[in-house]
Design a protein that fits this description.
By secondary structure, the protein is an alpha/beta fold. It contains 6 helices and 9 strands.
Length: 172
């Protein structure tokens, strides 16, 4: 299956690597443009997904806007069977959601519909939830509103930090 992958932070890296190991053809990894980091914002750094895609030899796309006609033409030319997304950080426009015949799927780090939107790991910990998990959902134009195809639950440890939990959920 030909996959167009969207992701940016470290949370998305295990999903990208698993798709590559699973024998899927990764058409490209779409990630946010490189960002200035550090004191004085003088060092420009690639996202964790861009670094992993480069290591795996996967083409990298860094559009400033997903609605840019040039990027949309690139995505169409790649002719993906499916879109897989993990923590990309922007809403995906309908023009992209409608592109792959097998749909666009999001790996969301919460038990939907409990914590839709950004920061679901933080919100679960702050709310004192005893468990959380990962949901695989079909993307629709509204944020985290599509049908859920699969969920896996996991307890939240009493002293577990956001970073610890994010690492565990990324592996799920």
């Amino acid at each position: 299956m030909k996959v167009l992958f969207f992701g940016t932070p470290e949370f998305a890296v295990p999903a990208l690597a698993a798709l590559a190991r699973g024998g899927h053809r990764l058409a490209a990894a779409v990630t946010r443009p490189d960002q200035p980091r550090g004191r004085g914002q003088s060092v420009v750094e690639a996202s964790p997904v861009a670094r992993e895609a480069a290591r795996l030899g996967i083409p990298i796309l860094r559009p400033a806007r997903l609605s840019d006609p040039e990027f949309l033409a690139q995505a169409r030319a790649l002719a993906p069977d499916v879109i897989a997304l993990a923590a990309y950080g922007h809403l995906i426009p309908s023009a992209l959601l409608d592109l792959p015949p097998r749909g666009a799927w999001n790996i969301h780090p919460s038990l939907l519909p409990r914590w839709r939107g950004p920061a679901p790991i933080h919100r679960a910990i702050l709310a004192g939830d005893a468990e959380t998990g990962v949901a695989i959902m079909r993307m629709v134009p509204r944020l985290d509103a599509g049908p859920v195809a699969l969920m896996e639950r996991t307890p939240i440890g009493p002293a577990e930090t956001r970073g610890d939990l994010a690492t565990r959920l990324a592996a799920v």
